Protein backbone atom coordinates (compact mmCIF):
# COMPACT_ATOMS: atom_id res chain seq x y z
CA UNK A 1 0.00 0.00 0.00
CA UNK A 2 2.82 2.42 0.73
CA UNK A 3 4.08 2.07 -2.84
CA UNK A 4 0.97 3.82 -4.19
CA UNK A 5 3.07 6.95 -3.88
CA UNK A 6 5.14 5.81 -6.88
CA UNK A 7 2.03 6.22 -9.08
CA UNK A 8 1.06 9.72 -7.93
CA UNK A 9 2.54 11.21 -11.13
CA UNK A 10 0.06 9.14 -13.14
CA UNK A 11 -3.17 9.73 -11.19
CA UNK A 12 -5.28 12.33 -9.41
CA UNK A 13 -6.14 10.17 -6.38
CA UNK A 14 -4.40 10.97 -3.08
CA UNK A 15 -5.14 9.25 0.22
CA UNK A 16 -6.58 11.56 2.86
CA UNK A 17 -3.97 10.17 5.24
CA UNK A 18 -0.68 8.46 4.51
CA UNK A 19 0.75 6.17 7.16
CA UNK A 20 3.91 4.11 7.27
CA UNK A 21 5.45 2.09 10.08
CA UNK A 22 8.35 0.16 8.58
CA UNK A 23 11.54 2.23 8.58
CA UNK A 24 13.08 0.09 5.82
CA UNK A 25 10.10 0.68 3.53
CA UNK A 26 10.28 4.38 4.40
CA UNK A 27 13.98 4.43 3.39
CA UNK A 28 13.12 2.80 0.05
CA UNK A 29 10.36 5.36 -0.65
CA UNK A 30 11.86 8.35 1.16
CA UNK A 31 12.44 10.58 -1.88
CA UNK A 32 8.86 10.10 -3.14
CA UNK A 33 7.37 10.57 0.32
CA UNK A 34 9.32 13.77 0.85
CA UNK A 35 8.41 15.04 -2.63
CA UNK A 36 4.67 14.67 -2.03
CA UNK A 37 4.30 15.08 1.71
CA UNK A 38 7.23 17.06 3.16
CA UNK A 39 5.07 19.93 4.48
CA UNK A 40 1.77 18.11 5.00
CA UNK A 41 0.23 17.30 8.36
CA UNK A 42 -1.77 14.24 7.30
CA UNK A 43 1.19 11.87 7.55
CA UNK A 44 1.51 9.28 10.30
CA UNK A 45 4.89 7.61 10.85
CA UNK A 46 6.12 5.16 13.44
CA UNK A 47 8.57 6.42 16.02
CA UNK A 48 11.18 4.04 14.57
CA UNK A 49 11.18 6.09 11.37
CA UNK A 50 11.92 9.25 13.34
CA UNK A 51 14.84 7.45 14.99
CA UNK A 52 16.35 6.43 11.63
CA UNK A 53 15.40 9.26 9.25
CA UNK A 54 14.53 12.93 9.00
CA UNK A 55 10.79 13.47 8.83
CA UNK A 56 8.53 16.40 8.01
CA UNK A 57 8.09 18.92 10.82
CA UNK A 58 4.28 18.61 10.75
CA UNK A 59 4.14 14.81 10.66
CA UNK A 60 2.39 12.78 13.33
CA UNK A 61 4.56 10.22 15.12
CA UNK A 62 2.97 7.19 16.74
CA UNK A 63 4.59 4.56 18.97
CA UNK A 64 5.11 1.26 17.16
CA UNK A 65 4.41 -1.74 19.34
CA UNK A 66 6.46 -4.58 17.89
CA UNK A 67 5.12 -7.08 20.45
CA UNK A 68 2.28 -8.16 18.20
CA UNK A 69 4.72 -8.97 15.42
CA UNK A 70 6.71 -11.16 17.82
CA UNK A 71 3.69 -13.43 18.34
CA UNK A 72 4.47 -15.17 15.08
CA UNK A 73 7.74 -16.36 16.56
CA UNK A 74 6.30 -17.13 19.98
CA UNK A 75 2.99 -18.75 19.03
CA UNK A 76 3.72 -19.97 15.49
CA UNK A 77 1.07 -18.24 13.38
CA UNK A 78 -1.53 -17.94 16.14
CA UNK A 79 -2.67 -14.39 15.50
CA UNK A 80 -5.38 -12.89 17.66
CA UNK A 81 -6.65 -9.98 15.59
CA UNK A 82 -9.94 -10.78 13.87
CA UNK A 83 -11.17 -9.34 10.60
CA UNK A 84 -14.10 -9.87 8.30
CA UNK A 85 -14.11 -12.93 6.04
CA UNK A 86 -15.56 -10.62 3.41
CA UNK A 87 -12.40 -9.06 1.93
CA UNK A 88 -14.34 -6.39 0.06
CA UNK A 89 -16.15 -5.25 3.23
CA UNK A 90 -12.94 -5.40 5.27
CA UNK A 91 -10.97 -3.40 2.69
CA UNK A 92 -13.73 -0.86 2.11
CA UNK A 93 -14.34 -0.14 5.79
CA UNK A 94 -10.77 -0.41 7.07
CA UNK A 95 -8.90 1.44 4.35
CA UNK A 96 -8.51 5.07 3.47
CA UNK A 97 -10.39 4.74 0.19
CA UNK A 98 -13.65 5.87 1.79
CA UNK A 99 -11.87 9.01 2.99
CA UNK A 100 -9.95 9.83 -0.16
CA UNK A 101 -9.85 13.20 -1.86
CA UNK A 102 -8.50 14.62 -5.07
CA UNK A 103 -5.77 17.19 -4.89
CA UNK A 104 -5.21 19.43 -7.84
Strand order of the largest sheet: 2-3-4
Between the first and last Cα atoms, what is the distance in angstroms?
22 Å
- The string of secondary-structure elements, in order, is EEHEHEHHE
> From the helix content, strand content and strand pairing, which structural class follows?
alpha/beta
What share of residues are in beta strands?
Answer: 5-15%
- Biggest sheet character: 3 strands, parallel
Described by the principal axes of the CA atoms, the overall outline is globular
Q: Number of helix segments?
A: 4
Q: Give the overall average pLDDT.
A: 76
Overall strand count: 5
Low confidence ranges: 90-104
Helix coverage percent: 25-40%
Q: Concise description?
A:
The protein is of the alpha/beta class and 104 residues long. It is built from four helices and five strands; from the N terminus they run E-E-H-E-H-E-H-H-E.
Helices, strands, pairings?
Elements: E1 13-14, E2 18-20, H1 23-37, E3 43-46, H2 47-52, E4 60-62, H3 67-75, H4 87-94, E5 101-102
Amino acid sequence: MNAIIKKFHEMDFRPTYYGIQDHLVFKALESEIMEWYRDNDNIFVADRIKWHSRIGKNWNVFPLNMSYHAYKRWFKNQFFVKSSDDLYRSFLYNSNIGNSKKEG
